[in-house]
Design goal:
single chain, 342 residues, 7-stranded mixed β-sheet, 15 strands
């Protein structure tokens, strides 16, 4: 059951025009995330929409920014969060694609860990009625990243053999759904029985436990034994050197996640003329963003894309959410979100 239109309950806009929001005043650990109750509600420009946030996505990139370890850092203090979902509260004078009351999800915003956020209208998309706000908050960064990794950086085509490392996470599940729907042969890995089952249900033809010895060789055999055409690498510091042993001619290893250094032998790349390419969503060009959004929205409309939410946290639990999004205790399974609207 999806959330009802909340426009009849606007009590969170008080007379002073303030809202609850999570703010960061100094870079550091999860403890720097502070829930404040008197943050000014942002004012949308002519090209923006003001969205009353139903749920906000919690992504690993949010933690890197919070720690001051990201390429592009915000000016302090700032409100974390790049994606989410909710209801359109106001629109700018030049906005023609949205109307007040629309259920939407968004990606590319700044400050979604708050009751209200402004976002450029071209980065706001209608949320199907079949999805909850929590599911809507699981779309932006994971699905846009997965599409960019597979099709823009990985240059996938139907029939390609793709290996998705860490396939039970939010980006991994999105990658499995997208790859399966576009005719790829999908192999996924996970580290728990629950994760393996989840990956199988979300599009993988074969699943393997990356904690078991010899799993990578078995995965390659299952896909035909000729090596993978594409590998989506969510933990390159752990897997990259081994990935090079199971690649086929002209293979593309797309690095989506990394938390350390790794030694590799370039000779494996030379032998099959393969390549390793990085993937960062914020590097998308305007044309690439339009392409990615169109693909994700179409997949939602047709019905072959459905986010899986592992856990919802209250705004007061934001520190715990940031700790857990990187720890993956018990294995990663889908998306973590902050529940904003009550």
């Amino acid at each position: 059951m999806f959330q009802k239109n909340p426009l009849a309950k606007l009590s969170s806009i008080n007379e002073a025009g303030t809202m609850k929001a999570v703010r960061v005043h100094t870079f550091g650990g999860p403890e720097v995330l502070k829930l404040e109750h008197d943050v000014p509600i942002p004012i949308p420009s002519e090209t923006q929409a003001l969205i009353r946030v139903g749920a906000a996505g919690v992504n690993p990139v949010d933690t890197y920014i919070r720690m001051g370890l990201f390429a592009q850092l915000p000016i302090l203090p700032y409100i974390p969060g790049r994606d989410g979902s909710g209801t359109v509260e106001k629109i700018g004078s030049e906005v023609t694609t949205l109307k007040v009351g629309d259920r939407v999800f968004f990606s590319g915003a700044t400050g979604s860990y708050a009751e209200y956020v402004t976002c450029e209208s071209h980065s706001v998309y209608h949320l199907p009625d079949r999805l909850t706000f929590a599911q809507g908050a699981a779309l932006g960064v994971p699905y846009f990243t997965a599409y960019r990794a597979i099709f823009i950086k990985g240059k996938a085509k139907p029939g390609d053999r793709i290996l998705v490392h860490g396939a039970s996470g939010a980006v991994g599940l999105a990658a499995c759904q997208l790859a399966k729907a576009h005719g790829l042969i999908v192999v996924g890995t996970a580290g728990s029985p629950q994760g393996l089952e989840l990956v199988k249900k979300n599009g993988a033809h074969w699943v393997f436990n990356h904690k078991e010895k010899g799993y990578l060789e078995e995965a390659a055999k299952a896909a035909g034994g000729e090596g993978f055409d594409i590998i989506i690498e969510n933990a390159s510091d752990i897997n990259l050197d081994k990935d090079l042993t199971v690649i086929g001619p002209d293979a593309r290893i797309v690095v989506v996640g990394n938390r350390g250094n790794v030694d590799i032998s370039p000779r494996f790349l030379m032998a099959v003329e393969a390549s390793i390419v990085g993937c960062a969503l914020f590097r998308s060009t305007p044309d690439e963003w339009v392409q990615t959004a169109a693909a994700v929205v179409s997949g939602l409309d047709v019905g072959f894309l459905t986010p899986f939410v592992d856990k919802e946290y209250a705004m007061e639990g934001v520190q715990e959410a940031h700790a857990n999004v990187l720890s993956h205790e018990g294995g990663s399974r889908g998306k973590l979100v902050l529940k904003i609207m009550k």
